[in-house]
Write the structure tokens for this entry.
Amino acid sequence: MIGETVLEVRDLHTHFFLRRGVVKAVDGVSFSLRRGEVLGLVGESGCGKSLTALSLMRLLPKGGARTIKGEVLLDGENILERTPAEMREIRGRRISMVLQDPQTSLNPVFSIGDQLREAIERRQRGTRAEVMKEAVAALRRVEIAAPEQRIGQYPHQMSGGMKQRVVGAIAISGEPAVLIADEPTTALDVTIQLQYLKLLKRLQAETGMAILFITHDFGVVGRMCDRVAVMYAGRIVECGPVRQIFEAPQHPYTRALIASVPKMSGPIGRLTTIEGQPPSLMDLPVGCRFASRCALVEQRCLDAYPGTVRVGEEHTADCWKVVPR
Amino acid sequence: MAVIDPPPSAAPSVLRPRRLLWRLLWPARNGAGARRAARVPWIPIGIMSAIVVMALFAPLLAPYSPIDQTLRDKLLPPAWMMGGSDKYLLGTDAFGRDILSRLIYGARVSLLVALLALTAGGGIGLAVGIVAGYLGGAVDSLLMRLVDAAFTFPAILFALLLAVTMGQGLGTLVIAITLLLWASFARVIRGEVLSLRQRDFVALARVRGCSAPRIMLTHILPNVLNTFMVLVTLNIGVVIIAEATLSFLGAGIPPPTPTWGLMISEGRGRIADAWWVALIPGIAITLMVLSVNLFGDWLRDRLDPRLRQL
């Protein structure tokens, strides 16, 4: 199932250059993604998950955001060096994305058929009837009931879950090698979430695409992902197979995160929380970024950043206290 | 299988007696539509069509020449009034010209000016608003400073200046009104685009690899058309009144060519004894503006997919 590496990110730095200073929102992120794999990118709000995704698409928000360093290798080719016109060819066909809010993800003045058509016509030319047939097939693939009727409807006539499936159909219509899913289920209610995740899994099995799944929900991570990357204050602090992360988290931040997820079994006590605030991204400490909130903090944690330590098969953590293997 | 949602069906309409009179005045297209969007505004459409037909076929419809003076018959009241003559249905003005004929010919000028100025001014404003709002940054700053500059410029002074340098005429009038209009269009459209740009469907269009011009044309433009239509209808009145003002000041169409605004201006001084000279073109302007506004309202509802049932 899981094949060769399709996306490799090396030492990515995306900063916001503001009048007040430089916000180091993504500050040295590296990871890789293989064919047929789901990599979860987890972390709290503002840790740089979404900006990492936007950097990969090279769709940075307006207002001073720039990728200043790093490589994004898509099938071995550094897409950060491509021209904007070449980038437009890459987007949608080789790397695509779904966003959080299905309510605003579709253009309200066009029928969903028209919106699918726009995406399909980029991939293949054809008569209107052919393209429409393709669009119906695309809807059927994302399990929309009665696609022939739905195709002429407008976004407001559909439920949130259906809209998100249509967004998914549009995103994968270019048959991308990599799909970035930026909290696609956050705006959906729980039963629909599960349905959507199953659908994503099935589509992945059919197409073999790699998914970068951004979320802050560990429950979703356990269900979806093969590997997890935990992000904190602009860096990935721990990365490894999902079982190892859940069963033997190495970085104190990961441990604290997992401890703060409510458990279904065992005695019910107060939930653990992580005291304090993440450091300001404008004024990052020289040492470990989690040091100010870490229970195990030592002098060396404050003096220097620990560097990435291999702690197991495909399992790394950025911490002084972990035992290398 | 996925969740099966039944296709949305129209709610049964309840026809209250209070609505009957309204329904008579404002007939529904299929007799069942209590919904506003379905109700075609036949009366405004009728008035607008009548005015357009008047303008198009003025030489065939007008009983007299609009400029020939018959001083013997000056200031005759409309035919149904005491002292009115059957020859002049809507009476005559201070030069003995038939008001009905002047009204019919006047529709030509008013509509032509409105059409040209709204096309030019609205079009420029729409383009500037979309480009400034979507691209943002330096382009936005530059274009919006231009808009600010256009607002500070006294439009009437500018029109007089144009009239002096270019001479009176339709061209001068249209250019002057265009310069008056475009900035307000640009400002409102830009505001719309700023909020549209933040919506995810624009981001996803970029994710799909759409270019900036394509997004502006196929994703932003259709979403601001409703606003644009409303602006156009609101500004038809502004244009007609601007045309009247400028004609009155001598910067518009030179007399004796009739325009509705000019007719009001000419009748202004005699409003006490010969009210019809000013009032009749005034009623024409009111009917026209009201009809266009009601029609625009309906059109907006029709164009809004949220209000459209399939």
